[in-house]
Amino acid sequence: SRAEPGSRRPRADRIDLTEAAREVLETHAPKAVERNIDLGLEEAGPVPVIGEGTMLREMIVNLVDNALRYTPAGGTVTVQLAAIGREGVLTVTDTGPGIPAEEREQVFERFYRIAGAAEEGSGLGLAIVREVVENAGGSVALGGAAGSGLRV
Known about the structure:
Blueprint: E1 13-16, H1 17-34, E2 38-42, E3 48-51, H2 53-70, E4 76-84, E5 87-94, H3 125-135, E6 150-151
Parallel strand pairs: 2-4
Antiparallel strand pairs: 1-3, 4-5, 5-6
């Protein structure tokens, strides 16, 4: 895997996280429409960040894929972007079932799956997200009350 821990030194590209998010949302819009999910983008202009462009885009894809997978029909997935000081902040919020607080750290482990999860998956998405974010010098956290959505 390209995001295998310690597999290689990440490149340092300067990319606009807002533009990358727009591209990801454009490619995921048909899936959202098919599932009757309101997929939206809230942005305040360009959000320049330094990191490996391909992997930063993959991070956004993983977050949006997860949000669409676990959000029920009629729900909402919102991607928010902001530049705070010299840092870029990307938040993905959904109206899915959320993740119980006691499992929030474990979901970042490779191949970890929440017991009883109805949706299929490899358990790699959030592990890759954390690896990409940390390689770019950032951090990732989960929020929201279990049963009422998730904020990453």
